[in-house]
Design goal:
This protein has one domain: Sandwich (Immunoglobulin-like). Helices cover 19% and strands 36% of the residues. The chain has three helices and nine strands. Strands 1, 3, 5, 6, 8 and 9 form a six-stranded mixed beta sheet that branches. A three-stranded antiparallel beta sheet has the order 2-4-7, with no helix packed on it. Strand 5 and strand 6 form a beta hairpin.
């Protein structure tokens, strides 16, 4: 029977060996700094390689009409078209507009949900970036009654 200390030593040794062989990633590949620092819909779409965004009925945004607590606002985005490369969720009046970026393959249904922090009432966007670079979006206004950023 091993002691806790022996188990921790062996675990650290195995982790070190795996890290030295390149089995653990050294950094996250999915992070797009320019996209997460952009302040507007057009800037975010440009940062992820999309063309000028156009409104589409094939993209759907879900969320409450009135969010009682801006600290945890449930939001969802989906697209019914084939050939989706990325799905984005943006909150227009947040300091960083981009809330979430999901990379999509043909094996994945482009239907995602998350929770966002909203400091004030704002328009929320779901954007689908297609394989050919088209950017399609849907927009919804979400009113916040209690500020999510301490307000």
């Amino acid at each position: 029977m091993k002691t806790r200390r022996e188990a921790l030593k062996q675990s650290a040794l195995v982790a070190g060996l795996l890290a030295s062989t390149g089995m653990f990633p050294q950094f996250a590949y999915a992070y797009n700094k320019a996209a997460f620092e952009a302040k507007s819909l057009a800037d975010v779409v440009k940062a992820v390689g999309g063309n000028a965004p156009t409104e589409s009925k094939d993209v759907t945004i879900t969320g409450p009409d009135i969010a009682e607590n801006g600290a945890v606002v449930p939001l969802g985005a989906s697209c019914s078209l084939p050939g989706v490369k990325q799905v984005l969720i943006l909150v227009e009046k947040n300091p960083a507009a981009l809330v979430a970026l999901f990379n999509v393959t043909d094996a994945v249904e482009p239907n995602f949900s998350t929770r966002a922090k909203m400091g004030q009432s704002s328009d929320v966007y779901a954007v689908a970036i297609m394989n050919d670079g088209k950017a399609l979006y849907a927009k919804k206004e979400v009113k916040v009654t209690l500020g999510g950023c301490g307000g």
